[in-house]
Amino acid sequence: MSHDLSTGADPYHDIRDAVRALCAEFPPEYHRRVDEARGYPEEFVDALTRAGWMAALIPEEYGGSGLGLAEASVIMEEINRAGGNSGACHGQMYNMNTLVRHGSEEQRQRYLPRIASGELRLQSMAVTEPTTGTDTTRIKTTAVKRGNRWVINGQKVWISRVQHSDLMILLARTTPLDQVQKKSEGMSIFLVDIAAAMKSGMEVKPIANMVNHETNELFFDDLELPEDSLIGEEGKGFKYILTGLNAERTLIAAECIGDGYWFTDKVVAYAKERVVFGRPIGQNQGVQFPIAEAFIEIEAANLMRWDACRRYDAGLPCGAQANMAKYLAAKASWEAANACIQFHGGFGFANEYDVERKFRETRLYQVAPISTNLILSQVAEHVLGLPRSF
Ligand SMILES: Cc1cc2nc3c(=O)[nH]c(=O)nc-3n(C[C@H](O)[C@H](O)[C@H](O)COP(=O)(O)OP(=O)(O)OC[C@H]3O[C@@H](n4cnc5c(N)ncnc54)[C@H](O)[C@@H]3O)c2cc1C
């Protein structure tokens, strides 16, 4: 189902209204305080969980609401639009589909109802490594079968929400790169019990960073995982991760769209009120045009986001649309952020306006979860058929 702009009808207005009502209990001051304390919005994430929003993508037979990516994206969009930051909890949304689509029935039965009830959180996914960066097929973390255990060795970087999650999806090489026909083969994914892993071979080192985003370096030294922690078939992990990444990119596009609307609403209100040289600053075209331009780009990005959601939920290939939606939305929210901070003048830099916080938060999405350059190269090569550059 797509978002019908031509009639103005919003098929998701029920979800929007409900999420907005919940978010209204956590106004921007709440998120500002959490940011200043470099804390985690526990109460907010708990409230989202209790209301069932964190279980949106879990099928009904496992205790969730069985909604699609389109609905999940509305939840994330509304959090950002209300002045919050979905980065604290969006992992559960995109990781969920990896488990739902590729986990065994036994794994689904064991974990999904407990995630749906809020007893467990599945907020983390460990892919990125320090020495390989975006070149994921060269990851060096290995998983070797020893008896009925998998033994993990290696290192990850920038792995988010590990300290606020119970479970983590881990990508590791199970067949060395020089022994596979295609470099995307020979990697597998595992469901890791974080608390157990931290006692027996996984070290977690927090990385202080520009955004209040709990993210970490992980070190694996002979971490042993039970045999049944493997998700899906051995060697097919990269393919499974890609499904999750398409969901992740689409959800982050929606978050950027939420940010974009937050920035334009905020700057429009301010530009109408702030009087300099005897008139509202918003009466100057030099102020109006960058805001209007950002708004146009947000609306255009939104159309691509709905196309990505529609294709994902219909089980159609959606890699190009998910990437393009994320590219357009991250660019649009950044343009909106720039206009917002610029036309707030000095006040844009004052914490109490929340503009500088949201400005930092939305900047991340030009780099993570995938950089704009890598999206351009994906489109150039896989959509336009240009020669491969790497
Ligand atoms: C706050 C934060 C949270 C994160 N959370 C997670 C997480 O939970 N799990 C996880 O697995 N990862 C996570 N990441 C990692 C993130 O996905 C990567 O940082 C991102 O994919 C970029 O990879 P990199 O940092 O290794 O950059 P690199 O691959 O080193 O690239 C650096 C820059 O070089 C450019 N570049 C590289 N190669 C090319 C090329 N061939 N052509 C043109 N330009 C190129 C790009 O512009 C890129 O921005 C997180 C990162 C951050 C900052």
From TrEMBL:
Species annotation: Paracoccus sphaerophysae
Family the entry assigns: Belongs to the acyl-CoA dehydrogenase family.
Entries under Gene3D superfamilies matching the protein: Acyl-CoA dehydrogenase/oxidase, N-terminal domain (1.10.540.10), Butyryl-CoA Dehydrogenase, subunit A, domain 2 (2.40.110.10), Butyryl-CoA Dehydrogenase, subunit A, domain 3 (1.20.140.10)
GO function terms (MF aspect): acyl-CoA dehydrogenase activity; flavin adenine dinucleotide binding
Cofactor(s) in the UniProt record: FAD
Alphabetized UniProt keyword annotations: FAD, Flavoprotein, Oxidoreductase
Keyword Flavoprotein tagged: yes
InterPro entries, A to Z: Acyl-CoA_DH_CS (IPR006089), Acyl-CoA_Oxase/DH_mid-dom (IPR006091), Acyl-CoA_Oxase/DH_mid-dom_sf (IPR046373), AcylCo_DH-like_C (IPR036250), AcylCo_DH/oxidase_C (IPR009075), AcylCoA_DH/ox_N (IPR013786), AcylCoA_DH/ox_N_sf (IPR037069), AcylCoA_DH/oxidase_NM_dom_sf (IPR009100)
Domain Acyl-CoA dehydrogenase/oxidase N-terminal, chain residue ranges per copy: 13-119
Protein name (record): Acyl-CoA dehydrogenase
Segments forming domain Acyl-CoA oxidase/dehydrogenase middle: 124-222
Span of domain Acyl-CoA dehydrogenase/oxidase C-terminal: 235-383
Pfam families for the chain: Acyl-CoA_dh_1, Acyl-CoA_dh_M, Acyl-CoA_dh_N
